[in-house]
Every structure is written in structure tokens, then in C-alpha cells.
Amino acid sequence: MILTSGFGLLHSVDAEDWLQWRGPEANNHAPDGADAPVRWNIDRGENVVWKTAIPGRGHSTPIVVGDAIFLTTAVKDDETQRLLKFDRSTGQLLDNWVIHQGTLPGRIHSNNSHASPSPASDGQNVYASFHTDDAIVVTSVTTDGQQNWQQRVSAFRPSRFQFGYGASPILVDDLLIVAAEYDGSESCLAALDTRTGKTRWRVDRPSNLNFATPIATTIGGQPMVLISGADMINAYDPQTGRELWRVDTATAAICGTVVWDDRRVITSGGNPGSGTWCVLGDGSANDVQWENNVKCYEQSLLTIPNYVFGVADSGVAYCWRTMDGKRMWQSRLFGGGISSSPTLVNGRVYVGSENGEIFVFKASPDRFDLLATNQTGNSFFATPVPIDDRLLLRTAIGTGGNRQEYLIAVGTR
User: Fold this and answer.
1) Which is it for the CA torsion 96, 97, 102, 105, positive or negative?
2) Is the full-model pTM beyond 0.85?
3) How many domains, the chain?
4) Where, by residue number, does the polypeptide cross the bilayer (predicted)?
């Protein structure tokens, strides 16, 4: 067990837990020493540890808390939005809690779901955020499903594009930070007290439909919450919401989460402009360090020291040097259609396409080296989660009326 302090969670948690979107270090890296299989076959059960059917549909990524896995879903038949609990070892569905009923949005994008934000946990409680009843609503429950509080963060009634919502809540110390950005007067970034649900700070964001999840890190000794979109990249003080710096760049709508190295911040998107942009992470220069026209819209990028990987909407994988944006290599993986973000495990990148292929390639700037292609169902939107030398994969098998979602653990047996 470890106890993080200063900038992080204020509870004892397992070092191998995956408590929120993008994991323990907020960078989608598996912990040092972790591993995962390179190849598996769902149909034949090869390297499949367990496979559990999920009621309903969602694009959220699972989190892992102690002996349990938590995942959100939405069931259209009874118009419910739910939080599910699975056994970490066996995959057995343990609990199925209805959080909202009868308040699903009237319209969303066909590539979105009514359960796209990933939950977050401090090791004792789970925080689930939903777009419901024309608002963004966060619910806190214990890991046994007892509700602590429920809080309306903001109205969410987009007028120009009714595409739904996707930003995950993130934990910073005793604050839960939630983005609720849309083309209305209540567009904001807010921090809720994890004990009470009350708003500790709230900053206005432009009246602009944006889908990015904020992320917390420390650059140059300065803790910050980063978010991109609305034609800018912003850094905020996590404790007060004070804007630390801002660079006017990028584009209006961003879906992916900002990434960084020890000095730089990088983002990609979007709509109406497309590209990848890099700025300095200390706010010392109000301009772009480098940019290109590669569009990684739904999916986030992935950094290692001095380099950043991306898989574009076109299905082409890239590696750039973060210092100057030099393209180290590019290689086509598939024909296009991607929402899942790449995950780093033991020097390998795992990334899934929307048609269910999961590609594994070396995290090397020297050359592209594809290690495996694993067909994993017919529809893949969530991001692989590395845990216990396994990967947790949320996928759907079948189409139309025969479509069924599963949570699958793959690992070397």
C-alpha cells in the first residue's frame, strides 16, 4: 500500500490500482514492471482469463479499486444510467446500481453513448458523472454502493450540435474536477469537494461545445490542471482554479486529453481546424513551439521521454520528437475510425480501432515495429486498462440486434 500526499490522492491505495482516467500517473502508462500479453484470440479463448457480459452500452473505460472493477453503462430499454461492479480476479458482475432513470438526453452523436465518462475513485468512494436531465450530474457512492451525495455541476443543453458528453472527472487531492463545456451560459470547469459534493471553485469556460477531459500533473514544480479546446490550451491551479497560463492555439472542439513531457504540453484535434500542437508547459512563451496537420480527434496522444505517439483518424500511426516536432516515423495501421486512446505497457503501445482490432507495436522512436493485431469484437471505443499483468478490454461482439458488450481480461495463462 502507498500513501500519496501533496499533489495526489489523500488515501491509502494499492499501487497497482487504476483509479481514474489515464491511470496512476495520468499518462496512460502501466506501472513499471507490469506486463500484458502481446497476442490473444477471443473466439478460441487464447489468453482470455475471463469474459463477462455487460448490460446496455457505454464507451467509458473501467477503473480498478482494490478487489473490484467499476464501469458505467446505459440501458436504453428502461432509460437507465448505471454503475457496475465486477470482481477483479474472476470478472463476476457483483452489483448493478441504477444512478439515473428516465432522464437520458434526447439526442447524441451516433458514435457517442449515454455512458462515456469514466468513473474515478479515491480508494473509498466512486464518483460517476453523467449527462442526464439536460445537465452534468456527479454522484458519489461508497465502493459498496451507498450514495454519499449527488451534485448538479452545470446545465448541459447544447444548441448547435447535440452530440452528447464525454469528459471524465479527475481527482486531485480532495477535489473532483469536472469539465462541463457547451455552447451555453453555464459552460465551466468546476472543482467539487469529495466529502460533500459542494463546489469549491468554478471558472467560466467559453460558450463553446468541447469534449476534452482535464488532466492534472506537475511541470517545473508547478501543479496544474490542463485542458485544451475553445481555440486555446489552459493551465489552472488545482486548488483555486486560478488560471496559470494560456496559449491561444489548437481549435474549437477537442476530445482528447492533453499530454506532456518534462517541459512541453501537446494536444491534438479537432473541429473545425485539424492538427497537433505543442506549447511550453511553464507558460513562459505564449506561442506554439511546433505544429502539424495530423488529426487525433477522439483519441489522446501518448508520450514517453522526448517523444510522442499518435494514431490519427486516418488510421496512420506517428512518432514525433517533442523537442521540435520532427517526425520520426509514420505507418498505416488500418483504414480509419478510432476513439480508443493508446496505452503503454512494458515498452509496447496498445491501441484499438473502432472495428475491434487492437494493435500492438513497440514504443520506439527508431522505427515502427508492429508486433501483433488482435481482433477483439466488432466495436471498440474504450481504452485498454493494464492491471495484474492483464489488459481489461471493453468491447462489443455482434452488430445490430445481436450486439452484446463484454468486459474481457486478457493475460498469459
Assistant:
1) negative
2) yes
3) 1
4) none
